[in-house]
Amino acid sequence: MDNVVTHEDWKVCFSELGPGLVLFARQWVHSLADAEDIVQEAFVRFWKRNHSIESKGLLYAMVRTIALDVIRRDSRRARREAAAMSETEQSAQPQFQIEDESQQALAAALELLPKDQRQVLVMKIWNELTFAEIGQALGVSQNTAASRYRYGLAALRKTLPPQ
Amino acid sequence: MNDFSDLESQLKSLRPAPLRENFVARIEKAMIAPEADKDPENVIRPVQFQRRWIAGLSLAAAAAVLLLIRVNFKTPAGDKRVASVSPVPTIAAPLETTQRQAIPNTLIPSGATQVVYHKRDEGLLFAQNSDQPMRRMRSITRETLQWRNPSTGASLRVSYPSEQIELIPVSGQ
């Protein structure tokens, strides 16, 4: 079967989804280079298999699967990543474009969230996935995804200083 | 129920870090590259292992044929015997001499065994350009061929390991 999409199609698509995908991958591997490798493998595989870009849940599920494979492939890396995640989580390469102090505080508060909640927030806020798509990507029910989102926001509100 | 819309809009104003230039270039390169190069290492392409095993099995078969040719299976031409009632010998020859004449002085196949001592299901794989999955079964066997010279009592035994791979098409339900 020929790939009916054009060269420019994937570029447009990737320019829209790329930053969010990398941000999502960084919820598993903190290194930007590793996250880029994961996103590259997932996106190229997704695109070459002619999946509809509408099935975003599948694309994110691929990113998650590849990220977990990368972690399993190298247990030392997994330990390193786990250690990095459990520390203050201040990465050398920031995940966001910080413009002011309030955004700095927001990004820092986000890092303190439990991983499950943070993943859902990243998928919902910066990747604009529905709860059904998030559930598909993470292998949980739609209701679980929605609950994690609400818990995440509530925890974030508690952490943030009152304005 | 809490309203998180203000927090959501705050979060949306936070923008993910932009993609690095070289990353997009890498993606472009990977898009152009043929997909066959991206096969994971643990996938064995059927054509490759078929070639390898066909070569291996051919060599084993050739070795066996050479061994069989080397051994003379035919009984000596002058020793053609037909089942019939033997006349009573007029002169009673010594028993040992008669037996020696009847027993051919050559190696005769006396046994062949094939023992399958390990069979493993190696899972499903997709043959190239095929959507139908196939199940790969690997059998490890030891084949033993044996010849014996009844005249001298000498025996020759050749034993060699062999490995066989079967691809069994799996049909969906």
Can you walk me through this structure?
Chain A contains 8 helices and 1 strand. With 163 residues, chain A is mostly helical. In chain A, helix 3 (56-73) packs parallel to helix 7 (131-138). Chain A is globular, with a radius of gyration of 16 Å. The N and C termini of chain A lie far apart (56 Å). Chain B has helices at residues 5-13, 21-32, 46-70, 95-102; strands at 15-16, 108-126, 133-148, 155-169. The mean pLDDT of chain B is 75. Classes of the chains: A mainly alpha (163), B alpha+beta (173). Chain A binds chain B through residues 7, 10-11, 14-15, 18-20, 22-23, 32, 36, 40, 43-45, 47-48, 93-98, 102-103, 106-107, 110, 121, 125-126, 150, 153-154, 156-157, 160, and chain B through 2, 4, 7-8, 10-20, 23-24, 26-28, 30-31, 35, 38. Strand 1 (96-97) of chain A pairs antiparallel with strand 1 of chain B.
Main attributes of the structure:
heterodimer, A: 163 residues, mainly alpha, 8 helices, 71% helix, disordered N terminus, B: 173 residues, alpha+beta, three-stranded antiparallel β-sheet, 4 helices, 31% helix, rod-shaped
Concise account of the structure shown:
With 163 residues, chain A is mainly α. Helix content of chain A is 71%, strand content 1%.
Strand order of the largest sheet of chain B: 2-3-4
Structural class by sheet pairing and helices of chain A: mainly alpha
Give the helix proportion of chain B (percent range): 25-40%
Overall mean pLDDT score of chain A?
Answer: 82
Shape of chain B: rod-shaped
User: If interface size is counted as residues with C-beta under 8 Å from the partner's C-beta, which chains form the largest one?
Assistant: A-B, 38 and 24 residues
Overall residue-averaged pLDDT value of chain B = 75
DSSP, total strands of chain A? 1
**Main beta-sheet strand count, sense and barrel state of chain B:** 3 strands, antiparallel
Separate helix tally of chain B: 4
Q: Which spans of chain B of ≥5 residues are poorly predicted at pLDDT below 50?
A: none
DSSP strand content of chain B: 25-35%
Main sheet summary of chain A: none
**Compute the gyration radius of chain A: what is it?**
16 Å
Pairing-aware structural class of the strands and helices of chain B? Answer: alpha+beta
Oligomer: heterodimer
Report Rg of chain B: 35 Å
Q: Span from first to last CA of chain A?
A: 56 Å
Strand coverage percent of chain A: under 5%
Helicity of chain A, as a percent range: over 70%
Q: What is the H/E order of chain A?
A: HHHHEHHHH
